[in-house]
Specification:
Blueprint (H helix, E strand, L loop, with lengths): L1 H34 L4 H5 L32 H9 L6 H5 L29 E12 L2 E12 L4 H14 L16 E7 L2 E6 L9 H15 L8 E5 L2 E2 L2 E2 L4 E2 L6 H7 L4
Parallel strand pairs: 4-5
Antiparallel strand pairs: 1-2, 3-4, 5-6, 7-8
Helix pairs in contact: 5-6
Length: 268
């Protein structure tokens, strides 16, 4: 009896071991099948979406269902349009990232030049200078200073040139006269550190007697020193220093001053 019982026990143990191995093998196959990535053959095949359970024994192993992912559909034209219209959601990293704006480089524009603003004119746009005429006083000539309005001048040369132009043009007042011959021209006038240089045309020496020569010489000297009475005057005719004036040979000092003239040829 014992031998018979031992014979029956051996097949039972073997069967139990085989069933255990089957369960282990079935579980491994199920795990491997569930974790493997689907291939193009699996997605395009017409196989059923579910696979039958693998079991070594219908009585002892439950059915294992292996999910098979559905094939990813290829987006058509309408799907692409819809995908383009779906708003993109920014990640927190994209939302917090500062946006760097590229500075715009503007093309240089021609800048129009500004027109110069006119300077306000002074209240007295002109000035006056003394010009010396003469008048007959009982057979003798008397010097008569007269203020003449001229244009505003910044330099003494311009002021004296305007004074001589008025002198050579002749008086406008009939109560005074000029002994400088008509047609006399101012060739040049310059103001230097040592005095005033006056150059007249040859008409200055023409005609008249000694009294006329004395009067015209006084007119030139006094008008040339109207800005500074103590200034020295150098007188030339046609570029040559004037030493003798008139036929009687009136001697002219070089340089001349008001004091020298009043001493040699006093006018009333």
């Amino acid at each position: 009896m014992k031998d018979g019982q031992e014979v029956r026990r051996v097949p039972t143990a073997v069967i139990a071991g085989v069933c255990g191995l089957a369960l282990v093998a079935g579980g491994g196959i199920a795990w491997w099948t569930a974790n493997r990535s689907p291939t193009s053959t699996d997605t395009n095949s017409a196989a059923p979406t579910t696979a039958p359970a693998l079991s070594p024994s219908p009585a002892q192993s439950p059915a294992v269902i292996i999910p098979v992912p559905l094939p990813t559909p290829v987006p058509g034209p309408l799907d692409r349009t819809a995908a383009q219209q779906v708003p993109q959601v920014q990640t927190p990293a994209q939302q917090t990232r500062p946006q760097i704006q590229t500075p715009q480089v503007l093309a240089p524009q021609a800048i129009a030049p500004k027109s110069p603003q006119p300077k306000p004119l002074p209240e007295n746009a002109g000035q006056t200078v003394q010009v010396y005429w003469v008048k007959d006083a009982n057979g003798k000539f008397e010097g008569v200073p007269t203020k003449v309005a001229i244009a505003q001048a910044d330099k003494p040369e311009a002021t004296l040139q305007a004074a001589f132009n008025s002198l050579l043009a002749g008086p406008k007042n009939g109560t005074v006269s000029s002994e400088i011959p008509k047609g006399t021209k101012l060739r040049s006038l310059s103001v230097k550190n040592d005095g005033v240089y006056v150059d007249l045309s040859s008409e200055f020496t023409s005609g008249g007697g000694s009294t006329s020569m004395t009067s015209r010489l006084g007119q030139v000297i006094y008008t040339a020193t109207s800005l500074k009475p103590n200034t020295k005057v150098w007188i030339s005719v046609e570029g040559k220093p004037l030493e003798l004036l008139g036929g009687e040979g009136l001697e002219v000092a070089q340089p001349s001053t008001r004091q020298i003239f009043d001493k040699n040829f006093p006018l009333r």
